[in-house]
């Protein structure tokens, strides 16, 4: 998205959304668990490798704003213990309970009394830092990180390969835009507005996941968006998801070979990684 388009979207977004209450609906959290993209193995490995450069023995990873765990679980094969933390009880209720070295807790990113100071090798946040109090969350990260430990923020934007489908995505953003908090624009801009508190941090924007999805997959994804939930509440007379699905199905049928109901989506990943100084 161009800088101008992001500025335009930001100017229309709301400054009165309670960002800690955007994920309280169970239907939304279920859609989140089922339809939000899984991060690639490459993303988890990239962050674990960076962390390992200073902390060869990967002990504890803490993922704040973890949602139902898609940003958390991929770290379990690299770290001895992983803790996912989210302010939403429903998101945590939808996280898996059966992973031996992983646990999930309800809590704020900037208030982690159950994590000891200087005990954490990786403090991270996936697709969620924009919603958190920045300074307070960085301060809490600095308290719990071991010297040399890694602070990583990551997330994704997405686009369709076919221009007709991208136009549908753009129209959907325009329809919902006033329901988003202004901080959503930070994600649209891949957190380029954010500076990590540690010097010499790195920014990666070269990782991508390319997938073919169906209209059901995409509408399931839309149902996990706060703006869809808020818009639907304000328009109870309309079957918002049903109408969007029909429109998208017709569009896909019009641009594809007969019988192919899938279309290509590119999830563009971004990562910021920095280290707490050793002394
Ligand atoms: C878009 S979801 C990201 C979930 C997951 N990390 C992912 O990558 O898909 C944002 C999450 O941040 C959580 N959140 C918002 N503000 C928070 C805060 N101050 N502390 C902890 N979690 C927060 C929300 O409840 C929501 O589950």
From TrEMBL:
GO terms for biological process: methylation. CDD domains: AdoMet_MTases. The keyword Transport does not apply. Gene3D superfamilies: Vaccinia Virus protein VP39. It comes from the Eukaryota. SUPFAM superfamilies: S-adenosyl-L-methionine-dependent methyltransferases. InterPro entries: Diverse_substrate_MTase, Methyltransf_11, SAM-dependent_MTases_sf. Keywords: Methyltransferase, Transferase. Residues 62-152 form the Methyltransferase type domain. One of its GO terms (molecular function) is S-adenosylmethionine-dependent methyltransferase activity. Belongs to the methyltransferase superfamily. This is S-adenosyl-L-methionine-dependent methyltransferase.
């Amino acid at each position: 998205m161009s800088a101008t388009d992001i500025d335009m979207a930001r100017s229309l977004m709301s400054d009165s959304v309670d960002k800690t209450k955007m994920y309280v609906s169970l239907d939304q959290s279920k859609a989140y668990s089922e339809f939000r993209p899984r991060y690639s193995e490459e993303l988890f490995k990239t962050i674990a490798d960076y962390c390992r450069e200073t902390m060869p023995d990967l002990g504890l990873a803490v993922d704040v704003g973890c949602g139902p765990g898609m940003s958390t679980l991929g770290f379990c094969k690299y770290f001895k213990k992983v803790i996912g933390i989210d302010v939403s009880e429903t998101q945590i209720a939808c996280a898996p309970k059966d992973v031996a070295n992983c646990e999930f807790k309800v809590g704020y990113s900037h208030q982690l009394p159950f994590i000891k100071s200087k005990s954490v090798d990786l403090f991270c946040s996936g697709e969620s830092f924009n919603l958190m109090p920045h300074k307070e969350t960085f301060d809490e990260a600095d308290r719990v990180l071991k010297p040399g430990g890694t602070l990583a923020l990551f997330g994704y934007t997405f686009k369709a390969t076919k221009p007709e489908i991208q136009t549908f995505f753009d129209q959907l953003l325009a329809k919902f835009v006033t329901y988003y908090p202004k901080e959503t624009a930070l994600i649209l801009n891949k957190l380029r507005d954010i500076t990590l508190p540690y010097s010499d941090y790195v920014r990666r924007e070269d990782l991508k996941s390319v997938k073919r999805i169906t209209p059901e997959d995409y509408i399931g994804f839309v149902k996990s968006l706060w703006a869809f939930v808020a818009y639907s509440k304000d328009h109870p007379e309309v079957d918002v998801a049903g109408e969007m699905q029909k429109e998208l199905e017709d569009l896909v049928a019009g641009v594809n070979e007969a019988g192919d109901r899938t279309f290509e989506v590119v999830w563009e990943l971004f990562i910021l990684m920095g280290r707490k100084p050793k002394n």
